[in-house]
Amino acid sequence: MRTVHTVLGPVPADQLGAVAVHESLLSVLPGAEHAFDVTIDRAEIFETLAKKLTDFRNAGGGTVVDVTGMFHGRDLPLLEALSRSTGVHVVASTGMGPEELLGGYFLTPQTNPPTPWPADRFAALFGAEVTAGMAVPRVERRAPAGLVVTAVTRIGRTATDESLLRGAARTARATGVPVAVCPGDDALGDLEIVLEEGVAAERVAVAGLDRRDVARETVLAVVRRGASVVLDHVGADDDEHLTDRERADLVLALVADGHAGRVLLSTGAIGVAKGLPDDERPLAAVLEGLVPLLRSSGLDEPTVHRLVVENPRDLLTVRPGEEA
Amino acid sequence: MSRVNTVLGAIPAAELGVVAVHEHIGYGMPGSELDSTWWKIPEERYAETVPKLREFHEHGGGTFVDVTGICNGRDVDHYRSLSAKTGVHIVACTGFVGGDTALPHFARATVEYLARHFVHEITVGIGGTGARAGVIKVGVSRGGRMTALDRRIYRAAARAAVQTGVPILTHLAIDPEPAVAIFGEEGLPLDRVLFGHADDGPNSSITPHEWLLARGGRIGFDTFGYETELPDPPFWARPRKERLDHFLSLLERGHLGQLLVSADANCSPLGWPGVKGHTVNYLFTDLIPDLRDAGVDDAVITTLLVDNPADFLSIRS
Predict the structure, then answer these.
(1) Which SUPFAM superfamilies match (chain A) (predicted)?
(2) What whole-number distance in Å separates Cα of residue B120 and Cα of residue B109?
């Protein structure tokens, strides 16, 4: 059976429904959990996130993919309780990045010299989160991760960013989960590193491609290479990203060019932020904002369904990996 | 009135007894908690830790200063339980072992924010535990030179030390000129600073002991027991006799009042294998006999292990 790894276990891929594919539910800047002025009230966080997930479900949503990775506030018992309570499937991720967000364990280990971790060690760390289950640090492992995520330093790839990209790619190849990458200033170069590791391009999603600093040609090059693009700031109202009108035009252009199967849409919202600015955009911004805009611009219903249901389903479906 | 913050509340300095001034219940680099290689079930963690603390207590040990920094697996609830059950006073720290152990929330922070955080942990408490930090930890990142982040942490620590009266311990005393300059600029007398790891293998020869002592700093011979004679010594090990002779030479030159000793051992390491056979009890089983064999009298040993740490740890008003 074709299944997707959710926090509550495997779910048949055709039951996901409409998917918010690149979101952050609880996002904690590493270290903020120790800060004197940061309060982590789990009951309050649950209530906030449950409302957002319920609003998403009421707007027709079925599944939320949490791309915070393994070291940015991921709280598996909380995500499990949210999924059980709201009926929304939650897919959680392993992985981390960019380099600046890593702990010293990976960057200055207790060896002489303190050599940063190479790709194979990241692959083993991330891979265990798929094969043995996601870690509740020093306590236990829970359900297998549904995807592996990493990110590259915005101003340019560091050596450790490259190790993370390769480690994430090897994890995807070995376990059959997809890999999602937030690129730096060289999205195509970042993608090529992932593909060099032998992961199929269709298993790779490149996020953040609705940034203003990303050229239209770059977006086209990514989909022509066979990877998916995630336009993941739907509803954003800032100087850094396209407006929804511009985003809709980009989607229409990609569809017209024959790439409807390579487009993913998301809000990139943060449900609850700790140590970071809040982000109040609703998870349903794709379904309630962008999709109506696409329809009114002439996008047909099968293509809408393809973008919000079929493409994420195909990406998230776990493929038999080399070691699966 | 003399006071020292322990994890179970403030105590008079007279109650500290013999102090191990630079130790760890369990240390792991930030992020090591994600790697199940190192995970131990709680039974195992207590089984590794409690007998060492009980032995410490039976040897006459009074106080264990844990200098595990904020993001290194510092676990104050665990320390409270261990202290209550073994009778050993445990002092916890605020601060960071080095800039490279400060996670992004703190690495991005200003000096003012870091100082507020340290002061909060010293005067209000650490997280929700109610326990107040008794010392501030700072240190030099890997690489041997103070980074810009290391310097922000040192400056914030100096401000918190001036404001609250608790002392500072450093991880490494190499490249100390920027540290001494920062402490001077912030008005912190150097007898409130223990310049640590002045005795380890790679760093002892590049640590300017006399320069620091002349400025009033305290010197930590606080890696006693990490010896090249161990079956599997860590890279910071040093020949046993070389360290002891070095220490005795400083005593002979009259620096007794500025010297502190400890073992920097892990009771139950969190993110590394640890060093088999090395515990805080080296102080009793090896160091004190070695000092006596070298002709050091008991009054000097008491000064090193009781009086100096009591003076150092007492909150200065």
Answers:
(1) Metallo-dependent hydrolases
(2) 15
